[in-house]
Design a protein that fits this description.
Layout: E1 2-7, H1 29-53, H2 65-71, E2 77-83, H3 87-100, E3 106-116, E4 119-126, H4 134-147, H5 161-168
Parallel strand pairs: 1-2, 2-3
Antiparallel strand pairs: 3-4
Helix pairs in contact: 1-3
Length: 175
């Protein structure tokens, strides 16, 4: 799974309550991280269910959730582009990236900030720790995608045409 998010915006002209520099990049990341966690758990659980149907052995659940999510396929990557409004916002975005990495296999971040409050839509990039650098994580995701070329796709079983026809008949006509 590859998921991309863009967070933080310049001030909207019709929003008098918003700070002049705009909406912080970290403003809604707590909600986004929860969404990412649920998607990753659902994806990996469904993959295990499909593999079990095909005769594979489901892996045993042991340890903590983070260890479990990092040890089972398929891989889950998250990418953030974050418009940050200051040092505290920048630190919070990196902190949220670290939290997201507990439920995803890897998280890549690109942070950028306005060059000045008087130029809120001209930007400069900001550094992030190496383990969340967007270029590094994108490279790893590309390596995983290229490795998938050699793997046969897993297709869930389809119901038979008779089962499908029975499901779409009106209630009074089944039988």
């Amino acid at each position: 799974m590859l998921e991309a998010k863009a967070v933080g915006t310049p001030k909207h002209p019709g929003s008098p309550k918003q700070e002049p520099i705009g909406r912080p990049g970290s403003a809604d990341l707590d909600k986004r991280i929860k969404e990412i966690g649920f998607k990753t758990i659902d994806l990996k659980a469904e993959y295990a269910r499909v593999m079990s149907e095909k005769g594979g052995q489901p892996s045993a659940i042991a340890g903590n959730l983070t260890t479990r999510l990092h040890s089972v396929p398929p891989r889950s990557y998250v990418f953030f582009a974050a418009r940050v409004t200051g040092a505290n916002d920048h630190a919070r975005v990196v902190q949220f990236a670290n939290l997201a990495a507990q439920v995803s296999d890897a998280v890549g971040v690109f942070c950028f900030t306005p060059v000045s409050p008087s130029h809120p839509t001209k930007y400069k990039p900001l550094p992030v720790p190496p383990h969340v650098e967007l270029a590094r994580v994108l490279f790893n995701a590309c390596q995983d995608l290229m490795a998938l070329q050699a793997v046969q796709p897993i297709v869930p079983p389809s119901p038979s045409p008779a089962v499908l026809a029975e499901e779409i008949q009106p209630e009074g006509q089944k039988g």
